[in-house]
């Protein structure tokens, strides 16, 4: 650190500066007060008039009480409407889920019937095959049809005719039963499709009726509320 010179403060100069600052601040305050006095608003002169409404205090209190009661009723009404709408939505969702489950059960039942029909057809085919095989074994050793055209047919020709006729009857009976089963399956499928259409139409009609009932009830309550407001407020036309 180099050499330095210590200067003693001048107390007189310091006091003069402080006094000048104080005097300047006092002058500004005085100027502000003077400006406020000069710009002070003058007295207000109003034309005397009668204040208040045409209704008495008791009537005003009664109207306030009526408005408060209407407000409570409207809040309660909105809360009830919300609960009803929520309940209707939940019921519609439940009906929708039930319909889906019913359709699944019906499709499963149709599938089971088709599988049962296929199993029966396979069983009939197998039975038919075994019957034909048995009849073919019975035909072994018998003369052919062209060799049986003799004047006096013997017992072998009669046996062959009987077996052929029996085989033909079995084929016709099996074909008839198979055709009946197919027709029955077709009728069941048509009946099930018709039933599904009827249930779908009934469900759609029920949903529309429920929605129409809820909307009509809401409109009726809204109309009643509007009429009530018009009774309490005769001049209100909104």
UniProtKB/TrEMBL annotation:
Residues 75-125, 171-201 form a coiled coil. Keywords: Coiled coil. The keyword Coiled coil applies. Residues 37-59 are annotated as: Disordered. The keyword Coiled coil applies. InterPro entries: EPSTI1 (IPR026185). It comes from the Eukaryota. This is ESIP1 protein. It comes from Prunella fulvescens. The gene is Epsti1.
């Amino acid at each position: 650190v180099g050499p330095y010179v210590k200067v003693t403060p001048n107390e007189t100069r310091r006091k003069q500066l402080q006094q000048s600052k104080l005097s300047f601040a006092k002058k500004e305050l005085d100027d502000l007060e003077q400006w406020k006095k000069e710009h002070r608003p003058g007295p207000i002169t109003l034309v005397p008039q009668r204040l208040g409404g045409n209704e008495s205090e008791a009537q005003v209190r009664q109207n306030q009480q009526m408005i408060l009661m209407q407000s409570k009723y409207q809040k309660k009404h909105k809360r009830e409407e919300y609960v009803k709408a929520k309940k209707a939505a939940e019921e519609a969702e439940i009906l929708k889920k039930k319909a889906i489950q019913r359709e699944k059960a019906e499709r499963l039942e149709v599938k089971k019937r088709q599988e049962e029909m296929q199993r029966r057809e396979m069983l009939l085919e197998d039975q038919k095959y075994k019957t034909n095989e048995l009849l073919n074994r019975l035909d072994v050793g018998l003369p052919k049809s062209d060799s049986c055209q003799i004047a006096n047919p013997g017992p072998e020709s009669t046996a062959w005719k009987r077996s052929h006729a029996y085989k033909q009857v079995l084929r016709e009976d099996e074909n008839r039963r198979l055709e009946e089963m197919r027709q029955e399956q077709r009728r069941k499928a048509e009946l099930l499709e018709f039933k599904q259409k009827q249930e779908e139409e009934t469900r759609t009609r029920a949903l529309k009726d429920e929605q129409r009932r809820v909307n009509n009830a809401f409109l009726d309550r809204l109309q009643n509320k509007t009429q009530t407001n018009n009774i309490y407020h005769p001049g209100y036309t909104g």
